[in-house]
Amino acid sequence: MRRIGVLTSGGDAPGMNAAIRAVTRTAIRKGMEVIGFVGGYDGLIDRDTMVLDIRTVGGILQHGGTILKTARSERFKTAEGVEQAVQTLDFFGVDALVVIGGDGSFRGAKELSRRGIMVIGIPGTIDNDMGYTDYTIGFDTAVNTVIDAIGKIKDTAIAHNKITIIEVMGRHCGDIALYSGLTGGAEYIMLPEMEMDLEGLYEKINAGIERHKHHCLIIKAEGVPISNAELAAYIEEKTGQTPREVVLGFLQRGGSPSARDRLLASKMGSYAVELIEQETGSRAIGISGRELTAMDLDEVTDIKREADLELLHLMYSLS
Ligand code: ADP
To answer: Angle at the Cα of 317 (from 315 to 319), degrees rounded to 5?
Structure first.
């Protein structure tokens, strides 16, 4: 293996740059060359490349986003798009490709793998929605961003005795809501994996009111099937109080990666190059406890993530 391609795809996540840096520097130290493709799979189709060497990946470790840019490529979902991508890899003499992204990006990577290209997937997504790995790169930073916001909202909620609905990211996976709810001291959380229990929510608010606690922070993942306005209307009807609504949105995607995400990205990026050196075939890198794992890329995208019910119980016993 002489030349490695790298791209970032799908939703960006803090720590992607740390992974690019780790792949590049490990590969160069092993005598390989690295070529970056700009803008996810679109960069493969359009032959949009970036030189990656020891210097160009300097000073990026601490930055969110991705120097390689990212995209959701509709063209790559077509057979012609995949064929063009394969031709590009051939044109540049790329022996193996590292794809840093989420579940969708891994599905795309499988298409390349089926055409005989060795692809290593590094899980980069703030949602932590990949069932085969304990953690994905970017999740820890996003949770830290959310608890910082929760802390600020909590100050004013307590001062004004306000019920506040905070919507966080997570369409199918409620891990951001769960971890930030627990560590940010929310009163109630709503996850897409849970049955919606509005009665239970009202009882929780009411129990607080009976104890003369008039503020209540509700963390709701975006995938919960009730709009913030509908939820606010329900609470208003039951309590007579108009809740505040805050949608944290894209601020959860940005920011300097946490130490934990930088560490995970550095380990995974370096491991990707080791797997390429060993010519293992296409793999998805994950982490289980303290151990890095390398599963067959074909197998990982169908592994569904289950919500951690123990954490959920802990959250409620402490709130
Ligand atoms: P994420 O990787 O964050 O989950 P997406 O789901 O948007 O983000 O996927 C990123 C990109 O991966 C898509 O825009 C598309 O180019 C590619 N992709 C996703 N699913 C497939 C598929 N089944 N076949 C080919 N490419 C796919």
So the answer is: 65
